[in-house]
Specification:
The protein is α/β, with parallel strands linked by helices and 515 residues long. The protein has 18 helices and 13 strands. The chain has helices at 39-57, 87-100, 115-132, 136-143, 157-170, 200-204, 249-261, 276-291, 323-328, 338-346, 358-381, 385-389, 397-407, 412-423, 430-444, 460-466, 468-488, 492-504; strands at 4-7, 12-15, 23-28, 61-66, 174-176, 182-184, 225-230, 245-247, 266-272, 297-303, 306-308, 311-312, 354-356. Helix 3 (115-132) packs across helix 4 (136-143), helix 7 (249-261) crosses helix 8 (276-291) and helix 16 (460-466) packs across helix 17 (468-488). The model is unreliable at 450-454 and 459-471 (pLDDT under 50). The structure holds adenosine monophosphate and zinc ion.
């Protein structure tokens, strides 16, 4: 299948081919864990998830890394070398204030002075949200104690970021500024500005990109950006050849992408549109400066922003929603099923602004209901003995139309169009149709299931032996066990979500002393 993606770097839709097929190496800029993630953040993360799932559907083996930024992200991060306050420090103050006022949502943080505790709290919250929204990588995080797929920036300062900064100094791409901080010398890298379209002259004269006034005197060029900030009083600090301090935000992703994907050149790098400049521009300069390669990522893919009722989300305007707000019903007048929020966030084209509206959410709810009802209907009508008899053929033309639309720069709207016109057709063989539907849902991820189960909880190979209802009951039992495990881990939101899934499948669920 010919796959084509828009590449921010070349401003064109280009044929996509992995460097080492079937492997695809992909890095996604992940969350900053100083607060609950909002629905705009999750538009970017669900985009990355859908991209991965589509690549997997087309036979790729995707090595995905999504970082967790727990240090170095400044409140003025639209300025190349940051500025203002570390977001973690700002969070500590906010949490202290909230605790004074007795706010329940931060009760679990008993020491707001401890940035690691804050990071852990919001990382757990992020993973819980991502699991509810069926983001695959969150399930891998649970099984991976070393967090190699979702690395924490603070775990990679000494072993990866500092050596990379040393390398950049050695190669004359970085220098120690007048204030003792280490800066990247943008004039040493001729391609600086290629991704965002900014030129060094525009940056010098302040025509594009804001520059930090505080550090101007310490740097060779106003566009030079921070790699290391010596600051022994900082909330999080590490020893380094340039004094105790902390890394710049951009070096985090560069160092972790290279270390954890084990590659100088990767296939795809994603983020929201605000990441293009300065963050990704700086990442390219750092990686290519250190490796000497012409490319860091072959494809740069960026999600346009999510708006709410046509406007930029903002706490001041009262149209700012976290995932939790939406699921609890704060954006509408009733709680929202996580699959409906997932569908709402994935259904628009990633290169257009998404507009989150009450009406849109209602439409998404009917779409998800329709997909689920159809799955249920096909499941009930299916003759599972056919699995044993062989002869199942899932080469349905709808799959070609569905995948073909996605291959065209992830045209989710086109793929959904193909799915819905197929849903309305009569299906002669329910089992076959069910498999086709489940195959499409491997990308969409809205059918009720246990964790990341690929087949609607149906073990098609074993079904013949078990007989018709057997597979379904086993699936229900697995979900009950998952509820017990979530409750034992005090993860009540997850337990509740799985309970709702079971109810959605038509079961009555009650919890006794034994689980
Ligand atoms: P942050 O936690 O602020 O580092 O953001 C995490 C990711 O969410 C980044 O890739 C951002 O580009 C992305 N992002 C932030 N706001 C929005 C939004 N309103 N719509 C889409 N993506 C966003
Ligand atoms: Zn990043």
């Amino acid at each position: 299948m010919d796959i084509r993606f828009y590449n921010t770097l070349t401003h064109r839709v280009e044929p996509f081919a992995a460097l080492n097929p079937p492997d695809v190496y992909m890095y996604n800029c992940g969350p900053t864990v100083y607060d609950f993630a909002h629905i705009g953040n999750f538009r970017a993360f669900i985009f990355a998830d859908v991209l991965r799932r589509f690549l997997e559907l087309t036979g790729h083996n995707v090595h995905q890394v999504m970082n967790i930024t727990d240090v170095g992200h400044m409140t003025e991060d639209d300025v190349a070398d940051g500025g203002g306050q570390d977001k973690m420090e700002a969070a500590a103050q906010r949490i202290k204030e909230a605790k004074k006022q007795g706010a329940a949502h931060v009760a679990a943080i008993d020491n707001p002075e401890d940035p690691y505790q804050i990071a852990r709290f919001y990382t757990d919250a992020f993973i819980a949200d991502a699991r509810l929204l069926n983001v695959k990588i969150a399930f891998e995080y649970d099984r991976d104690p070393a967090a190699t797929r979702m690395p924490h920036a603070t775990d990679h300062v000494t072993n990866h970021m500092i050596p990379m900064i040393e390398k950049l100094i050695e190669k004359n791409h970085a220098y120690i500024g007048g204030d003792g901080a280490v800066y990247y010398d943008v004039e040493s890298f001729p391609d600086y500005g290629k991704l965002s379209g900014n030129t060094l002259v525009q940056l010098r004269t302040g025509q594009s990109g804001r520059v930090s006034v505080e550090t101007m005197a310490a740097k060779r060029h106003p566009g030079d950006f921070l790699l290391w900030k010596p600051d022994p009083k900082h909330i999080m600090k590490w020893p380094s050849p340039w004094g105790e301090g902390y890394p710049g935000w951009h070096i985090e992703c560069t160092a972790m992408a290279r270390a954890l994907l084990g590659r100088d050149v990767i296939d795809i790098h994603t983020g929201g549109e605000d990441n293009i400049f300065p963050h990704h521009e700086c990442e390219i300069a750092q990686t290519c400066g250190a490796t000497g390669q012409a490319h860091f990522a072959r494809f740069w893919m960026h999600t346009r922003f999510l708006l709410v009722e046509g406007e930029k989300m903002s706490k001041r305007k009262g149209n700012f929603f976290t995932v939790r707000d939406v699921l609890e019903g704060k954006a509408t007048d009733r709680p929202v099923d996580p699959a409906v929020l997932r569908y709402e966030l994935l259904r628009g084209h990633y290169r257009s602004n998404a507009n989150f509206t009450k009406k849109g959410l209602e439409d998404s709810a009917s779409a998800v209901r329709r997909i689920r009802e159809k799955a249920r209907e096909l499941f009930d009508a299916a003759n599972f003995d056919e699995v044993d008899e062989g002869g199942l053929n899932i080469a349905d033309p709808v799959l070609e139309a569905f995948a073909g639309a996605l291959a065209d720069d992830l045209n989710v709207g086109g793929a959904l169009g193909a799915l819905f016109s197929w849903l309305n057709q009569p299906h002669e063989n329910p089992l076959q149709a069910l498999i086709v539907l489940v195959t499409m849902d491997r990308v969409l991820g809205v059918l009720p299931r246990g964790v990341e189960d690929e087949n609607f909880g149906i073990d098609f190979a074993a079904l013949g032996a078990k007989g018709a209802g057997g597979g379904e009951d086993d699936h229900a039992l697995e979900l009950c066990q998952a509820i017990d495990a979530a409750r034992a881990a005090k993860n009540f939101a997850e337990a509740d979500a799985i309970r709702k899934l079971l109810i959605g499948l038509g079961y009555d669920v009650s919890t006794g002393k034994e689980g």
